[in-house]
Design brief:
The structure holds two protein chains of two kinds.
Chain A: H1 4-12, H2 15-25, E1 29-34, E2 38-43
Antiparallel strand pairs in A: 1-2
Chain B: H1 21-51, H2 57-71, H3 100-105, H4 109-122, H5 124-148, H6 151-158, H7 164-179, H8 183-190, H9 200-213, H10 217-242, H11 261-266, H12 270-279, H13 296-304, H14 321-335, H15 343-361, H16 381-391, E1 398-401, H17 403-406, E2 414-417, E3 430-434
Parallel strand pairs in B: 1-2, 1-3
Helix pairs in contact in B: 1-4, 1-5, 4-7, 5-7, 5-14, 5-15, 7-8, 7-14, 9-10
Keywords (chain B): Membrane, Transmembrane, Transmembrane helix
InterPro entries (chain B): STSV1_Orf64
Protein name (chain B): DUF2079 domain-containing protein
Chain lengths: ~45, ~450
């Protein structure tokens, strides 16, 4: 799949992008479950 | 060239003039035995990786979304690539429709992994048959095992699911038919390559060229013509018609660069390493057979590309080259009388090929020898915790999941790619991401 490189560069290797997205959605999503391995967030009811 | 010019070992004993029916049955049975062994190994290893969260949204999740679309009589839409994204705008692989009936019965990414294992294992049947034809049962068994263990097939199995698994099978059966001078059969196996991926019409044309060179000019020319028309239509019309930018999205990989053409083909050294390891497992003799011409288009586009992942030994890109290299090499060995009726020589050839296949395993990441490591058959506490979180997402939900977790959800949810989404007006109900190993590529793990 040719999107491979994009995904590896952007999703897997770029924490900055993830943190930026988390900051962006902070008001719209809330953490439901967090454990040492993963985080689950749910869209806020509005 | 006629088969009569080959050295063909019709028996394993130089003194037996006629095969017993038991030996004939054994000769028929061994190729299927080899394929069955690898079906079990490939399936077990890829399912194991999926259970340990070592598969990914890119690409298993994307392909599952496509097959899921087909299974419900829809288009190959992949939300991971983007909301409503039709994969025909990315690559042309309608052959995936063939997986859909099985997916409808077993709606799971594991269905795709087993389909891939089946296809690649099946490609060992013609390779082993040709090896038995030229070298007898012992050599055939050794070569078949060497083929199944070859690093490029392992790289494909180690990295999710890819449509090229169909091509590995088709090319293997087609080239074996060429060796047997069964021209129509060779064409029938090769023609569907155009439905596997857009780069494969050129491989079909190369098969046509080999058939022309062996005296079947009309059939070979017809294949070349069909390949040219279909390839042009796919890349020039079909993919752009579905692509959001109305273009073939990978044309930039082939665009001019600052390098001269020679430097571009032959540097960096990674390309030499890959080329060497394409020849080594099959005994180095593949280029001495015209069959090897079939490998040239794949080598050219990969080494000409500006995209570094195409140059090396990771991912699925070299899988299609293995049946070509093995069958070409077997033909060369036969012409050079490597398979004379000397049992020790035949044992030697097969053992050397088997040894190089095993050594080749250590040249790639994600290698199959992890199969023998007991810790790889254990679900860690961390992975169990990730799975527990995934279980709390209801079926039918919309989810933005990261690359590591996406393929765990695509069979029961509409999955978007996190951190690409939420955003752009698409806000899934859930967001889930792993805090483990997020930097590791799925091809370098386990």
């Amino acid at each position: 799949m040719g999107g491979l490189q994009h995904a590896f560069d952007k999703s897997i290797a770029d924490d900055a992008w993830i943190n930026s997205k988390l900051a962006d959605i902070a008001g719209r999503y809330q953490v439901v479950t967090r454990n040492p391995s993963a985080v689950l967030m749910r869209r806020s009811q509005s | 060239m006629s088969l009569v010019s080959y050295t063909s070992a019709s028996t394993d004993s130089p003194h037996s003039s006629a095969e017993s029916s038991a030996r004939r049955r054994l000769r028929s049975f061994v190729p299927y035995l080899v394929a069955s062994v690898f079906l079990i190994i490939y399936s077990a290893w890829s399912i194991n990786k999926h259970e340990r969260l070592l598969t990914a949204g890119y690409d298993l999740g994307i392909f599952e979304q496509a097959v899921r679309g087909y299974a419900h009589l829809g288009a190959p839409i992949s939300a991971i690539k983007g909301p409503g994204f039709n994969l025909f705008g990315d690559h042309f692989h309608p052959i995936l429709i063939l997986v859909a009936p099985f997916y409808r019965i077993f709606p799971s990414p594991i269905t795709l992994l087993v389909a891939q294992a089946t296809l690649i294992a099946a490609s060992a049947i013609p390779v082993t048959k040709i090896a038995i034809k030229f070298g007898g049962i012992v050599a055939g068994l050794g070569v078949g095992l060497a083929y199944g263990l070859s690093w490029a097939l392992q790289s494909a199995i180690a990295f999710d699911f890819h449509e090229v698994a169909f091509a590995v099978t088709m090319v293997s059966f087609s080239l074996a038919a060429i060796i047997e001078e069964r021209w129509r059969r060779a064409a029938i196996w090769a023609i569907p390559l155009v439905f596997v991926k857009e780069d494969l019409p050129v491989t079909l044309a190369a098969i046509g060229l080999v058939i022309v060179l062996r005296g079947q000019r009309r059939l070979g020319a017809a294949l070349i013509g069909f390949a040219a028309v279909s390839g042009t239509a796919i890349v020039g019309l079909v993919v752009p018609a579905f692509n959001p930018y109305h273009a073939y999205p990978y044309s930039l990989n082939q665009s001019p660069s600052d390098q001269g053409p020679i430097a571009r083909f032959f540097t960096p050294a990674t390309k030499w390493t890959t080329f060497a390891w394409i020849l080594i497992p099959s005994g180095l003799l593949a280029p001495f057979s015209s069959i090897f011409l079939v490998a040239v288009p794949t080598l050219l586009w990969r080494f000409w590309s500006t995209n570094p992942p195409y140059w090396g030994m990771s991912y699925q890109y070299s899988a299609i080259l293995m049946p070509i290299a093995f069958i070409a090499s077997l033909e060369s060995m036969s012409r050079l009388r490597f398979f004379q009726r000397d049992v020790r020589r035949r044992w030697g050839v097969s053992l050397i090929m088997l040894a190089t296949a095993v050594i080749g395993t250590y040249q790639i990441p994600g290698k199959l020898h992890g199969f023998t490591d007991g810790k790889n058959w254990h679900i860690s506490r961390e992975v169990a915790a990730e799975k527990a979180i995934l279980r709390s997402i209801p079926d039918g939900s919309t989810v933005a999941a990261d690359n590591r977790l996406a393929a765990q959800l695509t069979s029961r949810c509409t999955v978007y790619f996190f951190p690409g989404y939420p955003g752009d007006g698409t806000d899934p109900e859930w967001v889930v991401y792993s805090t483990l190993s997020t930097r590791a590529s799925p091809t370098t793990r386990g």
